[in-house]
Specification:
By secondary structure, the protein is α+β, with helices and mostly antiparallel strands. It contains five helices and seven strands. A seven-stranded mixed β-sheet has the order 1-2-3-4-5-7-6, with helices on both faces. Keywords: Acyltransferase, Transferase.
Length: 191
Amino acid sequence: MDTPYKIRKATASDSHRVPEIMLQAMEDMIFRLILKEDQQAAVQFLTQLFQQKGNLYSYENTFVAVDIDDRIIGSLTGYDGDRFIELRQPILDLIADHYANNLIPETETAGGEFYIDSIAVAPIARGKGIGTKLLHHAITHAKENHFNQVGLLVDLANPNARKLYERIGFNIGKKTSVAGSEYYHMYMQLT
């Protein structure tokens, strides 16, 4: 029998678990931002951002999947793509000030969509449909907030994720590069 779980809005106090899960979806990107391949430093970096408002990785842009004991087993971070530049700026400021990194990664979304920045499921909870449930929750959120489209990037080297997104109803858009990696922009029209 599958463990029951629910999706809820994240809170700042979820920082004890969410950044560690979130890192699974974007480890390479975070290592590029902090200029070192150090998981503990990467989790600290994400924790600082997650606890603050007004940035891409903030709790205010995150949904979590929790089990019956309220343990966080998955997360999805998404936001209005039209706010990408504004929400990215605190991250650029942090990496410049604390990591001496002046990298400005390419824009991940052209706007006009609810953009799913990251989605990850804890290893112990994989294969139970939690990622799919998080995606459906984000799509419902986008519809309720009158977005016409949901978008995300999928790594060309991750065909299984691409198949999952296609099965849910996402279409393949243009190929794009972000911080040295190749992705497809995938989208789902809502209207």
